[in-house]
Amino acid sequence: MADNIELFTEDKLEYCFFPNATGFIQFRVRAPHDAHLALTTQAAEVDPMYEVFIGGWGNTKSIIRKNRTKPDVAEVPTPNILSEGEYRGFWIRWDHGTIAVGREGDPAPFLSWADSERIPIEYVGVCTGWGANGNWIIQPPNATQNGAAGRPGAAGLAGGQCWVSASSGQVPPSGFAGGEDNGEPLYVIRANFNGGLIPGKLVPSHGQAYVAWGGAENPVQEYEVLCDFLGEWRATSGGNIPPNAVPAGQSEDGEALYVGRVVHDGSLTVGKVQPSHGVLYIPYGGQELSFTDYEILVS
Fold first, then answer.
1. Into how many domains does the chain fold?
2. Is residue 273 one of the residues assigned to a domain?
3. Alpha carbons 39 and 21: distance in angstroms, whole number
4. How do residues 185-216 score in pLDDT, each as one tens digit?
5. Partners of 224 in the beta sheet?
6. Full residue range of the structural domain in which residue 70 is found
7. Region of residue 84 (left: phi > 0; alpha: psi -120 to 50; beta: else)
């Protein structure tokens, strides 16, 4: 396995690029403010590109920007998120147009945005500026993929998960079955739908997967299957999300979504948990059905 990349960035706002097409990067940075990262198609500042500013504006907020254009597409207050005296760890995931940024050891992103355009990211750049220098420790791509690196169609996710692209009812050999309907296993999937990355169910005999959205059970032909996963289910209700719950996507507004399941009409059906709504939504019988008591997937 390759060694970590260690580098120093001056107060120049000039990106240092390195290849990374895995969809995931994990790193640690020591800087007083303004740790900037670029996700690009080339080893240069060219459109299309995304930028993530961590601890910008005097270490008060973090943002996502597209094509160096204002207004920023996503912004959250993050006071004192960086430190000049110690390394702080973070991860960034880009997957089917969704950019998610999180802290080391925390599987839930603190900043995310879903883009309708899918940009093929091939390079990551880092820099500091606005009066800040930075020291970086960047893990090599194979070390951050949690077993998914090098597998065709695979995309890693913080927290030890592996999502493998599939379509038309296909199930990867290590697919995670989370439900059952008339004796047929239902697999945990997620799929891009109307600007969100939505957890749902795969019914192999139907040749497609389904996600709950907009009051309906929506069929999808292309999806990602949760694989190589050793989690378990925990009973909960409402918006009570256990700290080790599995984040599997985000709504069109950037809210983290989780995987849940419930028994309905004799079927153990998988769906999405949306914390702000306080319910589990399942796709079933052509409808989006909600439940306040359910099981949630935890790692």
1. 2
2. yes
3. 10
4. 999 999 999 989 999 999 999 999 999 999 99
5. 165, 190
6. 5-144
7. alpha
